[in-house]
Write a structure and sequence with these properties.
Blueprint: H1 2-35, H2 37-92, H3 102-114, H4 117-125, E1 131-135, E2 149-150, H5 158-165, E3 170-178, E4 181-192, E5 199-206, H6 208-258, H7 273-312, H8 314-329, H9 336-367, E6 374-378, H10 379-396, E7 401-404, E8 411-415, H11 416-432, E9 439-445, E10 449-456, H12 490-500, E11 504-510, E12 514-522, E13 573-574, H13 577-580
Parallel strand pairs: 7-9
Antiparallel strand pairs: 1-2, 1-5, 3-4, 4-5, 6-8, 9-10, 10-12, 11-12, 11-13
Helix pairs in contact: 2-3, 2-4, 2-6, 6-7, 7-9, 8-9, 10-11, 11-12
């Protein structure tokens, strides 16, 4: 019983391996089939050509076979009617069907037929060799006895004998066994008269020569068809390659252009349609290169303008700040209206200074001169410090800040100033949009990365707005009352700071159900690539309670999104370098 079970298990494992191998090979072929237009054209041409060659071969074989059989039949009938039957009837004049030795008489008649010089010459020149048969179908025999006959009467089909018995001339093709081989025969039957009553004569013409000829014809058609298919495949491959090669060259050139190599061009050979395609492609590449160069120059001018304006505003801003501080220090001596004006002036100057600092930071990021001052950093401590700095503002707004970070130290190598700025911007943004609901701050650690999520349960994000939260100066509701000020550049700068570390910043939100921002950073900035996050984003199907983000996170997929919680269709958007180049700064939803 155990041996049978082990054999069954081995058989099942073999079947599984074979099926896996077949499935793998099928997927490989399917992948090549989808990617290669040349393969599809060649295979389709061969398939259609095979069908055409098969039909043409069958038609030719049928026509040749019918033609040969008709020629053989006409020659055999003409020989029987003009040569064999007259000689046979002369031989049968001496045959008495009623005698006891009628079988011997029939054999003698056949011998006289085959030995006749005129018949032999006609047989060699017209229809070839034959086997004659004579039989007396009208002879009265006892039960169980056969009719008197001479020759291989057993090779004559029974239905043909019945037909000839009614005094009719008939032909039929039949297969008989000769020397343990199947031989195809053309059987011709005809009545043959004697002095007393008619007999039945049959002539069996072998079709061996015709069969050999048909074998040669079939082999010739088969070999010719295969050679034709091979030539068609080679010709199709050559012609298709001439058409596909420029397309592949255009694809490779387009890839190099997309990679930033704007000097790549296609070779122009000849004056045909392919050359026209290459020439048009090169003209398009020249136009794109010129436009990209103009955009780069414009971007440089814009960044230089932003940097110059930001620096030039420093001096007058400092002067205005000094004057405003003097006015603010003496506000108690002013009337009520002037006192309030002095306070508003100082508040707006604080905002102006913050905006100016963000503009200078963005100009450095755009210029590519921003660098990281990495050091050993305790992330939970940074999170707690950032939350504590914003706790008074949150209490003023009636927002509860709930922090779930470990007490033990979790160290990464990063720029402490930039990481703290990211966390502070995320928490401040959540407080402004929490609508008095709690804000949850959670921390997660993976093997090579750490993550911080900031979750609010306020206004949330409309469909499509998650793609805009990292855009510079973007606001979902410009008239919204804010508690932390803000310049509209915080989240843009935060996304760039995350990118500089080799991580990312992504967002999720639903209308009326809040939003969640997730920061994911590598433990060693610049030395490893982050592919997944240890914390999930909320699910679009069901929004959990405020305590949901404080629970243990589920497993995440290789893409960095939770297999159960991250649903990009629900507004989950990861900040990218392409989008961050358009928006570096604090977000205003």
């Amino acid at each position: 019983m155990s041996d049978r079970t082990s054999r069954g298990g081995s058989l099942r494992s073999l079947v599984v391996r074979v099926s896996e191998n077949v499935r793998r090979r099928w997927h490989w072929f399917e992948s090549i089939w989808r990617r290669s237009m040349q393969l599809r054209v060649v295979v389709s041409t061969l398939a259609l050509s095979s069908a055409v060659v098969f039909v043409l071969g069958m038609v030719l074989q049928t026509q040749i076979t019918n033609r040969m059989l008709e020629t053989k039949k006409d020659a055999a009938v003409r020989q029987v009617e003009q040569s064999l039957l007259p000689v046979l009837e002369r031989q049968l004049t001496a045959v008495d069907p009623n005698s006891e030795d009628v079988d011997e008489q029939l054999k003698g008649a056949l011998n006289g037929l085959t030995t006749s010089p005129s018949v032999q010459n006609d047989a060699e020149s017209v229809a070839g060799t034959y086997d004659p048969v004579l039989v007396d179908e009208y002879a009265v025999t006892q039960e169980g006895e056969s009719s008197p006959s001479a020759g291989p009467i057993g090779d004559v089909p029974r239905d043909l004998r019945e037909y000839v018995k009614r005094d009719r001339f008939a032909t039929q093709i039949s297969t008989v066994s000769r020397n343990h081989e199947q031989v195809t025969m053309l059987v011709i039957g005809s009545p043959a008269g004697t002095s007393t009553r008619p007999l039945q004569s049959y002539f069996l013409f072998p079709l061996s020569a015709e069969n050999r000829t048909m074998g040669v014809v079939q082999s010739t058609l088969l070999v010719g068809g295969l050679v034709l298919l091979v030539l068609l495949g080679a010709i199709t491959n050559l012609v298709t390659r001439q058409v596909v090669r420029p397309v592949r060259q255009a694809a490779r050139t387009a890839e190099r252009l997309a990679a930033g190599n704007l000097d790549e061009r296609m070779r122009v050979i000849g004056e045909d349609d392919v050359a026209l395609l290459a020439d048009s492609f090169n003209e398009m590449a020249d136009s794109l290169a010129q436009q990209i160069q103009q955009l780069e120059e414009f971007g440089q001018l814009q960044r230089r303008f932003t940097s110059d304006v930001s620096h030039e505003l420093r001096t007058p801003l400092t002067t205005v700040r000094m004057a405003a501080d003097v006015l603010h220090a003496s506000r108690d001596e002013f009337p009520a209206g002037l006192e309030r004006s002095a306070e508003l002036l100082v508040d707006e100057l604080d905002r102006f200074e913050s905006l100016l600092g963000d503009l200078l930071e963005i100009s450095r990021l755009d210029a590519g001169v921003a660098d990281l001052s990495t050091e050993s950093l305790d992330v939970p401590e940074v999170v707690r410090r950032s939350v504590d700095a914003l706790r008074p503002i949150a209490e003023t707004s009636g927002v509860e800040l709930r922090v779930d970070v470990p007490d033990e130290e979790v160290t990464i190598f990063a720029d402490a100033r930039r990481v703290e700025r990211i966390v502070r911007n995320l928490v401040a943004n959540a407080v402004d949009h929490a609508e008095g609901q709690p804000v949850d701050v959670a921390f997660g650690e993976g093997e090579n990365e750490v993550a911080v999520t900031v979750r609010d349960y306020g206004v949330g994000l409309q469909p499509g707005e998650a793609e805009l939260v990292f855009t510079r100066f973007w606001r979902a509701d410009p008239s919204r009352d804010r508690q932390t000020g803000g310049t509209g550049l915080g989240l843009s700068i935060a996304s760039e700071d995350a990118r500089l570390h080799g991580g990312w910043l992504d967002a999720w939100g639903e209308p009326g159900r809040g939003s969640c921002f997730r920061l994911t950073l590598p433990k060693y900035s610049g030395e490893q690539e982050v592919t997944e996050s240890p914390l999930p984003l909320p699910s679009a199907r069901s929004i959990a309670a405020p305590e949901a983000l404080l629970a243990a996170p589920p497993e995440t997929s290789e893409s960095g999104y939770s297999e159960t919680g991250d649903d990009p269709s629900a507004g989950t958007v990861r900040s990218s370098p392409e989008r961050s180049e358009d928006g570096d700064g604090e977000e205003e939803r």
